[in-house]
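On clarity, I found the account of how folds are encoded harder to follow than it need be. For illustration, here is how one protein appears when written out as sequence plus structure tokens:

:::
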Amino acid sequence: MAAKSFHPYPWYSPRFWHGMRFDAWMKMVAENRFRIHPSRIPMALILTGFTPANSLMAACQRWVYGRRLASTRIEQPPVFIVGHWRSGTTLLHELMAQDEQYASPSTYECFVPHHCLLTSWILPRLFRFLLPKNRPMDNMAAGWDVPQEDEFALLTLGAPTPYRRMAFPNHEPADMDMIDMVGVTGDRLQRWQDALRYFVRLLTYRYGKRVLLKSPPHTGRIAFLAQLFPGARFIHISRHPYAIFPSTRRLWYALDDAQALQSAHHRHTDEYILSCLERMYGAFFRQRRQLDRYQIAYVSYEELVADPVAQIARLYEELALGDFEQVRPKLAAQAKQRAGYKPHPHRLSDDLRVEVDRRWKDYFEAFGYEMQD
């Protein structure tokens, strides 16, 4: 299938690379041998101009808040929403974020975690007009203040993450081992742990609440997260693979066109999607055996869309997440507001369906989805 160009943002709009510090930015570009497409050079120059300011403001935030953040105790371990990309993690995250007992990171906090405590009162207002009203891959609301996935915060903090692939999508995918954590040890593991622990402390300090996070790459890290945050809870959401594959392809096309420093050719995108789920769920099925039963609960996208209030009430009960009745009215109102949402239609060719059936067989069986004859 030929690559389809979405061009969701003009070249001067914010990218997640805008939030990186100068050293992390230059290291990433140098590792990819500065292979930037001529059409993306203006964006790269703007990014290079932003990153020293991020480094300066990060130093200021450390000076002002460093001791307070370091002494912040995480009294209640986070709740993690996990599941493959396009399986409904965003929908579940935004619904559960209606509960005021939780603190969910905003897009701005994930964009610049190293100086958001200093700048969130002014910069999101100044640059609000630069973000699109809706996300290009699914038409859901976008904005600086909507809940966002913490993997982007890890990216901008310089931790190893597969999201670095979006900058140079025509190269070998970066940090694939961070999808299943196989062989991740030493300095790379420490940098990932330090970045995530810092971000959770930052949110805990800022809001004084239990942190609610969602990130698809965390699906293959649940045992590592449980060790890092003893007592953490996990909610896994699944979706039919015949919807996941084409929707994930659309996601990567959109993000590559919006974020990349190259003109993405997408020749290896289908293989990337197939192999990511294989690695992610190989790790998930192994690691979930290490969790106590009270730590993890399951829901499907299909169940959630059909009756979001009932399904989330069940999750609260299974994981002992607190009093659901106090959030029921807000959740019901949010679900009613979303009732008219129309997802993009998903189509899967016969050849790809055969590959999905063959390579994602364990996912079909584990979550009760049927293959077509």
Remarks:
- Strands lie at 79-82, 102-103, 210-214, 233-238, 296-300.
- The domain at 16-367 is CATH 3.40.50.300 (Rossmann fold).
